[in-house]
Design goal:
It is built from 29 helices and seven strands. By secondary structure, it is mainly alpha-helical. A five-stranded antiparallel β-sheet has the order 6-5-4-1-7, with no helix packed on it. Helix 3 runs antiparallel to helix 5. The radius of gyration is 41 Å and the shape is elongated.
């Protein structure tokens, strides 16, 4: 294989290790006909000629280079024997990269496969992010099919639709997700531009840091916010543009770099996650694993730490967790308990990660557009519904996230309640737990079931386990499982980020409007505050009336329950020697309340309330029987019998009455 490479390089000046002629001309194999070959040559030459007039200088230069070497390319491919040997070389060595491409792809997809199922998105992203691996596409796809058992592979990748998770993400477009795919590819493109600029020695004269990493070239260490980086990019783009206009075509890659950076800084995910964006630029070899960071599992961390150690000299796994993973974790929630344990171990071993800004990072305060302090109360009142909505969400999140931890403590009262219900069912009276007797309960249970005394203890234990313990255990397990699913079902962190993105957008708009039309903007905000005040006042008054109505209804229900309880108690105390009709009459009379007049002279009215006429007066100390009817007015009014025959009735307020029965 090395002989064919040296032969072509010596005779034609083409290094087939870095250039795949089959991919360049899109030829499927060595068996192509002469007519198809000539058509491919003509099509490619036409494409290169069109690129000569491209506004992109790098594209034009590349097309010019290929046109100069087109005769040599075609001479190699026109020779059938050479074409066959060349195809065998590419198949054997993986398109000129040997086993290195396969090893690299094996490591990448090994990490992806430990996190989730390998899908078409991952394969397409791999070849987009690592364009140099495209010449090894076929061997990599074969490796995925044989080693990772990825089925339905074709030249594009995985033949199939997106999984449920992707569908859910598309449906919940409101939720702010992690970095967009275009952002990761844009960072990779910036690195490629910088590498190309560094290969041109003259660019270092005006851009001394061009040979450094992108992180050092942009001095991101000293960029505290996105605006400072935006200022730096703007200045660099103006400088590179001026040098290019002066005839310095070698500065085209630098200009392309700044143009691409300007596009990236306009993207929302970069704006709202600038600190995490700096990490992506600082450790570019970890950037393609962004989605594995977000959905990390315990088994993924070791492999990611290995990549970090090899590429950037991280001391160990804990150094990787503290320096890279934890900053990402604070923005994107992780649910794997194994990772939580690893993070705690990292904090304990390193002793330097205290999460001082954890709350600010979660709530997005560092990304809030600055407003003059005097306008903050006005902004808060104007957007009070937004804050209240988020407060309700946070309350729901607090309940859901802690629901499973309540499951085990809740088992204790559940066991006690089930035990009491069971005792009541079998007829065992239990005044208090201190008086509980297992022997008495066992005897009563077995007597009711007709079981022999020898099996008393076994039957009792089985009964307690089946009726009390087992349902509680099942309930705890179901509650724990449901709470865990609820935590994972929704993107709680994403909803939080969405809220702060919306709020920050409102703040930027408010600030811009203040600068342009202050009086008009303040008038609108005061009007919004007034509308909110009216709205919340109406809601408050309605809620208060509703609460009063419910309170009155509840008091009435409780009174009726009390009356019913008293009637039942009176009925039980009635002597069995009386006739049935007399017993019912006496129980009814006993159930009626008896009141004593407390005022010197109480007015008895025809209806509840002082608006009704006075029908009688009762002196202090007189006892009157109530009919059982009452009504809530400014106070509670009771209907009373005014004579012994109970034909005349009247109403009196509780203020002049005292219930004595």
């Amino acid at each position: 294989m090395a002989d064919i490479r040296e032969q072509i390089k010596r005779k034609y000046g083409i290094d087939i290790e870095t250039l795949n002629l089959f991919s360049l001309y899109k030829i499927s194999g060595p068996g192509v006909t002469d007519q198809e070959l000539e058509q491919a040559f003509a099509k490619k030459r036409k494409s290169w000629n069109q690129f000569l007039n491209s506004p992109r200088e790098d594209k034009a230069a590349q097309a010019r280079k290929h046109l100069e070497a087109a005769d040599r390319y075609e001479a190699v491919l026109r020779d059938p024997a050479l074409r066959k040997a060349l195809y065998a070389y590419y198949q054997k060595s993986g398109d000129g990269t040997g086993d290195a491409s396969l090893d690299f792809a094996r490591e990448f997809f090994g990490i992806v496969g430990k996190t989730r199922r390998i899908r078409r998105q991952e394969i397409d992203f791999f070849f987009e992010y690592f364009p140099e691996q495209r010449k090894s596409r076929q061997p990599i796809l074969e490796m995925l099919k044989t080693e990772f058992k990825v089925s339905k592979l074709d030249a594009r990748g995985v033949d199939g639709g997106e999984d449920e998770r992707d569908e859910k993400k598309k449906k919940s477009a409101l939720v702010a997700d992690q970095f967009d795919r275009s952002t990761l590819l844009g960072i990779r493109k910036c690195q490629a531009y910088l590498t190309k600029a560094a290969s041109i020695g003259t660019t270092a004269v005006h851009f001394p840091g061009v040979s450094e990493s992108l992180y050092r070239f942009l001095d991101l260490e000293n960029c505290k916010d996105i605006e400072s980086l935006r200022t730096l990019v703007k200045a660099g783009r103006e400088k590179a543009s001026g040098l290019r206009l002066d005839g310095g075509q070698e500065y085209t890659p630098v200009l392309d770099l700044y143009n691409k950076l300007d596009e990236l800084l306009d993207q929302n995910d970069v704006f709202y996650n600038f600190k995490e964006f700096k990490l992506l630029v600082k450790f570019p070899n970890l950037t393609p694993y962004m989605y594995e960071i977000v959905e990390a599992r315990e088994r993924t961390i070791a492999d990611l730490a290995s990549v970090a150690q090899r590429a950037y000299g991280f001391r160990d796994q804990y150094d990787f967790l503290l320096s890279y993973f934890l900053p990402m974790y604070s923005k994107f929630g992780i649910y794997d308990n194994g990772i939580r344990k690893m993070m705690k171990d990292a904090e304990r071993k390193q002793g330097r990660q205290k999460f001082l800004d954890k709350v600010d990072r979660i709530l997005g305060r560092e990304k809030t557009e600055p407003l003059p302090p005097c306008f903050m109360p006005l902004f808060f009142l104007a957007y009070l519904p937004v804050y209240l909505t988020f407060g309700v969400f946070e309350l729901v999140k607090l309940v859901v996230w802690n629901l499973r931890y309540i499951a085990i403590p809740a088992a204790v009262p559940a066991v006690l309640w089930l035990a009491r219900a069971t005792f009541r069912f079998v007829g065992y009276e239990l005044p208090s737990w201190s008086r509980f007797s297992l022997r008495e309960f066992t005897a009563l249970l077995c007597a009711g079931m007709g079981m022999p005394a020898a099996l008393e203890m076994a039957v009792t234990l089985f009964f307690i386990a089946a009726v009390i313990v087992l349902p509680v255990i099942l309930g705890v397990c179901c509650l724990w499982d449901s709470a865990t699913k609820l935590r994972k079902e929704f993107d709680w962190k994403g909803i939080e980020r969405t809220f702060w993105m919306i709020l920050n957008q409102f703040k930027r708009q408010f600030k811009n409007r203040l600068e342009r039309r202050r009086i008009f903007t303040l008038t609108r905000m005061f009007l919004a505050v007034l509308i909110n005040a009216v709205l919340f006042t109406g809601v408050f008054l309605y809620a208060r009336d509703l609460s009063d109505g419910l309170s009155w209804k509840l008091r009435q229900i409780l009174w009726e329950m009390k009356q019913d309880s008293e009637r039942k108690t009176a009925a039980k105390e009635t002597s069995a020697t009386f006739a049935e009709t007399k017993a019912e009459t006496e129980s009814t009379e006993a159930a009626l309340p008896l009141f004593e007049i407390t005022a010197s002279a109480a007015n008895i009215r025809s209806g509840p309330g002082t608006g009704h006429e006075v029908v009688a007066q009762a002196p202090q100390g007189r006892q009157l029987t109530g009919t059982g009817n009452w009504q809530q007015m400014d106070s509670i009014w009771y209907e009373l019998y005014l004579d012994d025959s109970r034909t005349a009735t009247g109403w009196a307020s509780e203020k002049v009455l005292k219930q004595i029965q």
